[in-house]
Each structure stands twice: as structure tokens, then as C-alpha cells.
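Might you be able to consider the sequence and fold that I enclose below?
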Amino acid sequence: MERSPGELKIEAAAHPARALRYLSGLLYAADPEVKWQAVRALGKLAAEPGLLSDGRLASLLERYFWALNDESGAVPYGVPEAIGEVLAARPSLQPRFLALLCSQAHQEDVVQSGPVLQGVFWALGRIGPPVADCDPAAVEALRAAACGPDPGLRETAARALERIDSSSLA
């Protein structure tokens, strides 16, 4: 990532759309570390309501959900992770968007696969206990994947379940 977190914060204050476009573009980076830096930076910006309004973040999440749609033509690597990070940082947006994210794990017409599904599982774990309250079927999808044949999905699903379950026990 070419810009430091401090530079991004300053840019987000002056030009929020430019900062969000920059970070959104990095979600598709070939280097996984760059993608994860962008995900974390989005979360940090989202955690500051004075920088980005709920309305601006809602618009961003709408674009991200569109990218998850087959009709968009996008290959949405990194998008589910960004959605999860934003929803974890700004819980006020969960009532509007969490059910949509949960559906990506199990509803036949929108369910994802491969690395994108792994990103959905990571996002659900990042959000934690609200997932169980919002959509028990998503938790069941995580349980099934935690016993499934794909080692990456299995590990990510198991970690997500730990976060969802252990956080609700605390």
C-alpha cells in the first residue's frame, strides 16, 4: 500500500470518495498482504463516524454487494472481507446489511464458492455473535463447512464459529 494509515485518514477527511475508491481497488490486489491492509484500513476509517457517515458507508456496502452478484461481472476477491470489516467497525449498519452477508453463505440463489465463500466465512467470524442472532442458517452453513472437504474453507469456518460462539459466551 502506497499510503500510510495517517495519510488515508487525512485523505478520507478531505476527499472520502477518493479514499474509498483507492482502498476498494486494493481489495483486488494480487498480493494478499495488500488486500488485507486495505481491509484493515477500511475498518479503521469506518470506525470513525466523523470521517465517514453511515450514508456513505451504506453506499459503499451496496456497491460491494452488487460486486458479489453474478450479474456484476466482477471477481469479488476481498469484497466479503471488506464488508465484514465495515460491519464489525460500524454495527449501526448491521440491521440493513448483515442478513445480506449471511445469505451469501447458504441461500442457493446467492451462495458463493471458493475464495469468495472463504471471505464470506471470514467476514461472518469477524462480526461474531450478531451472526447467530441474525441468521441461524448461516451458522449451520459454517458448521457444515467446518467438516467439509476443502481445507481452507474448513479452517476459516471453524475459526468463524469460534468467534461467533466464544464471543456469545463471554
In short: The mean pLDDT is 90. The two ends are 36 Å apart (CA to CA).
